[in-house]
Amino acid sequence: MVQPEAPKSNQSALKRLRASLRESGITGGKSRVQKRPGNKKKGGPGAAADTPNAKQRAAKLNAIGAMFNPFEIKHNKTSKAKVLGQNRKGEKGRPAMSKQIGQDNRKKTLLVEWQNRNKAGGLVDHRLGEHNPHMTADERMAERYTQERLKHLRGGDVFNLDQDDVLTHKGRPLTEIDDFDEIDLRGPELEGDDGEDGGVGALADRKGIDKTTVRSAHFGNFHTDEQSPMEAHQQNKTKAEVMKELIAKSKMHKMERQQAREEDDDLRHELDDDFKDIRSLLLSGEGVVAPPTDDTDLDLTGASAKDRMLKTLPDQDDDYNQYLQQLALERRAPATDRQKTEEELLMEAKEKLERAERHRVRRMAGQASDTEGSDSDDDDGGDNDAFGGSKSNQRGAGPKRLPQGDDLDGDFAEGASHPLEGMLSRGLQLRKEGKLNDAASDSEDDEDDDEEESGGDDQSDEDEAVFDQEGLSDSDEDDADADDAGTSKATGPAAGTPKGPIPRPAVEEMPYTFPAPETYEQFADLLEGRTIDQQTIILERLRVLYHVQLAPENKQHLRNLFRALYVHVHIRVSDDSQAPLQHLDVFVRHLTELAPMFPELLGELATEQLRNFHGELTSRLQSPAGQFADVFPEATDLLQFKLLTQLLSVSDFQHPIITPLQLVLSQYLQQYTPRSFTDIVAGLFVCHLMLDMQRLSRRFCPEVHNYLQLVLAALHDPVMSETKIKGRPSITRTWADCGLFPLPNGGLEQFSFLNILSNNTKLNQVQYAKPRLMQFFDESTLPTTDAERSATLVGILGTTVQLLVISARTYMAFPSFIELFSPIVNHLRLLPAASLSPSVMKVIQNARTTLGNFLQQHFDRRQPLQLQKHKAVPIPSYLPKFQENYNLDRSYDPDRARAEHKRLQRVYKKEMRGAIRELRKDTDFIQTERLKEAKQADTDYKRRIGGIVGSLQEQQKELTKLDRIAEREKKRKRTRH
Amino acid sequence: MSYNTQCLINNVFRILPNIKNLAVVDGTVTEFWANDPATLVKEPANPRKRRKVAGATDQEGPEPVDPVQRSSEHTKTFENLWVAYLGLPLSLDLYKQILLLMHKRIIPYMHYPPALSDFLTRAYAQGGVVSVLALNSLFTLMQEHNLTYADFYLKLYALFDRQLFHVKYRSRFLRMASLFLASTHLPSYIIAAFAKRMARLALDAPPAALLVVLPWIYNLLKAHASCMPLIHRTDAKAKPKSTPTVNKWMASDPYDHTAADPKEAKALESSLWEIQTLQSHYAPQVSTMAKVFSDRFTRNPFDLEDFLDHTYSTLFSAELDRPSHKDPALAAQIPPRLFIEGDTYHDLWDLS
């Protein structure tokens, strides 16, 4: 309700009242009497309530009255500094009014509860608007109707029969079915007949309801006087009879349905018979594709063309429909990917590479990024910049891997979308070739093959033979599948020839299927006595036979194969270190192909190997020198570590295999004192491995640096040689000039075998040749003569110097490049140039110029460090902070959590206070009510007792009165007598 | 030196360190292993008098009764014994062994420990491992017996040589050295020189040593804010000119590694580029530690004890035993052969 504004307060109350009355239009200034407020107020509702205007007037007057009653308004001192025109909350209050409102509310809610406190049950009127006095009856009904409609709209309840949804029975709406349509109401005595002659005719007879039925059954109650005996009987039917009737009827209906179906069938047969004739006509029709029929006797002469047309037209439609149906039912071709254009394929490959590179860079930075999802692809775009865009570009568009023997998309199956798929087809190709050979030779060869297979089995023991047989049969089935796949593929463009000439005799001698090797021993048996080419074929056939897509258990077979291959590489190298390294690639290729399937197995194998290597290394370091005579590390360790570095992601910041590998190799380089050429060569190879691992991540490995410097110093000790020449080292030869690498226990003297000047050969005759790595891992091929030694030493020198160049290129960006490499340049300069051949000197000279260039660049660019260049932090200020438009109600706490906590505390306190106040008021109210009740009860009691006492007194009075009268009568009689 | 002398010296060394648990407080000498008739007569109240010091018999001679019971006499004898022994010509091995046990087994039982100062000073001046080992005892003398050692830090500085981070006693030495450098009253040029020298040596150090050196340098910089220019220098200065020395490139760093005196090393004008280099060390722990220098210098000083016991093996085992929930990441492109044509292996090796 809008309260009228109180006029200015400097006038008298009377004037203000008048003004407000005038403003509200109650006083028009017509009569003086009406203007008088006293009259108005006291004249009040009784007089004014007659007209509709009077109600409004009364309301207005009430409002004005309330406004002018100073006792109803309470003024609060909310603020000391008052601002004109400002409306503050809670400045004025109407305690009486708010109290009244509270009371009223409580009467509606709390009081009701209080009064019902000991009652259970009762009636609650939930009718819409029933208790709303503001609603008219029409409104109430409209509202109810709307709600009802809305309920239906929302779905309503399914089982509500009042719904608009039409319920059906056998496809007919229930409303259309008359309850008495099919019920036979002729008496029970006719039932027997009914059952017998129940045909179509009978059905038709019973369709209508005869008058008697209507009269007796429908309106029978209104004509009780006319009841026939039959009707009476019908009415008196027992339940059993009714059931019997029902059963009989259902039987009858069933029979009727059967008959109807038979009739339909007959009709259809007739049609089918006719159709033969029509079909012959159809065949002649033009533009209509007829299905091929085996019915060849065409009778075209029997009917004229027009007749034919007439006949065929509907049949044409029929035919068309039939075709349509056929087409609709035809199995749809499964959705396939669109054949991609070459650009798309290239783009895809490029994107894949780029994605892989992004992940690698993230891992290199030590961020968790192994989620190979596309979501992370977008946000890590910036990371490339951190490492220099050029690097990532170079990597992204860098040289792709070289074509491989089984590079399927390149070499073999151009259409193969999946590498494994191509793999499969390639293997099949091999097999097909073998089959062709077989076909060319006579059938005896086949038998020979079989014999060979069984012969091979004979060699193994019985159990294995059984296993083999099973394996063979299994794989035969697989073959069948594979052949199917192969034939379907052979039509494609993929029908190339397998790469690499396969020696014909090898193919002919080999069986086509092999049992899957479960252990390394079985695998070794398979390869036993085969040439390397045969082994290649065996492996390829194994891969095809146990392709993972052919059977689920093949994954386990491949797993075993992978493990066996890994072990085999180890054993093969340690057995025969002088075998050509290229032969290893036969196994390495399959390892590289299988590794993506079993990364965890690779991890296990590598971990185990690393542990063994580390154990071996520590035991050698702890034992006195010379206790172990054998070579350490073996060639196989070196090669397998090399394999690991190319299987695994070497640039990761922290890698479960690569990081321990680097640690253990570093320990080897740092702590294992080399004692022979083999040790030095192994150490240099390890250095090469370590440097190769850093080619992308460019991480610093001090041990490699130390080792290379040590080898260089061992090859040519500048201090010692100068001492030899001049008798004393020059004053400038301080330890800083030759590098700060730690000298091994025992000094450089123990490496005298490495000194290039130690052998009695003319060094300047010895040309530089790359050292043959595997040469040093066999006793028989070690250099023995002076010439060989010199050649080896020159080779080692060349390799060392080149490794230093590689490391310089790797560490080019390091700010300590000068400290790392300037001693080396000095050292290279001190090498005895005169006694070395030009080919060696060329290598050394190249290294010197390269390193010198790098050093000069670093020298020119060296800047003081600025590691603490952070974003400026504002200086903490203790000056008071002035807030524009400061508001007490707002929080200016910069700590959002704290501010929120404070806010919640405030709200809680406020709510708590409010709740306590409300509860107090509630209690007051309840107490008042209780008191009222008690008073009421007392009053009632008093009244009741008063009534009783009153009535008793009345009785007593009457009694006494009668007694007195009787007494008086007696007296009078006595007086008479 | 004759073989017999050598044998004697060795044999004596077998005996001497076994003299343990000497009484150092008066009145605690109550038990003797042998009866002394002289004391028996004079002090019948103490019938079970024994000699505890077995090796002292030949030098003690006839003694008055009271001194035997006085602990100071025991310690004096002990001291004389050792000082005499240390005067003998000792082999390097023996030298090391004596130094190893000196601060625990000898100094606490001596009457006047500074008597060893000559020996220790000589050992400390010797350089190398011996100095490293002498440092412990020397520190005990300095700390508890007010030994003053001239040019101590000069010598300590010299101890930081190329072998230091690779020797077996590395952690022992570093523990001591960190104590010496912990003083906040040291001039900043000394701190800077030590920090720079350690950083220079760290370029060739194993990861286990780096894991001590880096936090240590951090602590030094943290304690001596005047050394912060070592890692952050804003005032640009004239570029050095390459001088025609043997190593002209090294002139780009004002620090002079060859200077024996930290005062002349000009370390404060240099920068710790080595630390920036180590930020890309191959061991993840080391590079993480080196990267701390690029963060804000708000960390609490590191407790070096946490880092002192690392070795290659502990790092290796920690890496290998690290629980990993993922399969090891494979290379993005796996070459199909062990050595592909065109890689650097073919340039350097004959791979047939």
TrEMBL record, chain A:
Source organism superkingdom: Eukaryota
GO cellular component: Noc4p-Nop14p complex; small-subunit processome
Compartment(s): Nucleus, Nucleolus
Protein name: Nucleolar protein 14
Pfam families: Nop14
Transmembrane parts of this sequence: none
Composition-biased stretches (Basic and acidic residues): 348-357
Biased composition regions of type Acidic residues, renumbered to the chain: 372-383, 441-484
Keywords per UniProt: Nucleus, Ribosome biogenesis, rRNA processing
Protein's organism: Dimargaris cristalligena
InterPro entries given in the database record: Nop14
Gene Ontology terms describing biological process: maturation of SSU-rRNA
Major place of residence: nucleus
Protein family (similarity comment): Belongs to the NOP14 family.
UniProt entry tagged with the keyword Oxidoreductase: no
Automatic annotation (TrEMBL), chain B:
InterPro entries noted in UniProt: CCAAT-binding_factor, Noc4
Organism superkingdom: Eukaryota
Region described as Disordered: 44-70
UniProt entry keywords in alphabetical sequence: Membrane, Transmembrane, Transmembrane helix
Residues annotated as transmembrane: 173-194
Keyword Transmembrane: yes
Name of the protein: CBF/Mak21 family-domain-containing protein
Organism: Dimargaris cristalligena
Highest classification ranks of the organism: Eukaryota, Fungi, Fungi incertae sedis, Zoopagomycota, Kickxellomycotina
